[in-house]
Design a protein that fits this description.
mainly alpha, globular
Length: 196
Amino acid sequence: MFFGVLAGVIGIAGYIPYIRDILKGTTKPERASWLIWLLEYTALFVAQVNAGAKESLWLIGLQLLGVTSICTLSYRYGTGNFNKQSKIILACVCATLLLWYFTNSTGLAILLLLAVEAAGVALTVRKVYKQPGSETLTMWILAAVGGLLGVAAVGVHANRLLYIYPVALMFMGASVVAASWLGARQPQKEVMIDPY
């Protein structure tokens, strides 16, 4: 239980500086990403319960609380519109939920939902690569650490499906941090002014 609670607390702690930076105007959450994650985390929480998760529910449950808070704030303080790409990803989330409902396959739901989450992360990775500093990296670092502790919380003899989410969380958090780091190291593009 210790690792589960610790993973959840570390995961939720990252949302505090993120929310602070949203309110200060230094972080601009990508609206479509956070809506995607809200739908996906809600379904993933239910799928984890159905897969028999106990101690590791702290991680995803507190993550869901943080995602709900930021999704709500993103509509006022965020960036991005629901373009074609975002709508396709949202449609995939809805299709995944319907597929899960009709097949009642928890394993399939977890895998599909994590694929959708990765697509949402890809939107943020693209944004932070183009606009380094537009994300509070503390949250993403703590999410990755929370994922690592979540692996420990699952335990040794648990259902293998329960390891997928915390491992994916580690890689997704690390990918946002890496994209920001790489984007900040790209040479600044010069604006060419036409003299005529």
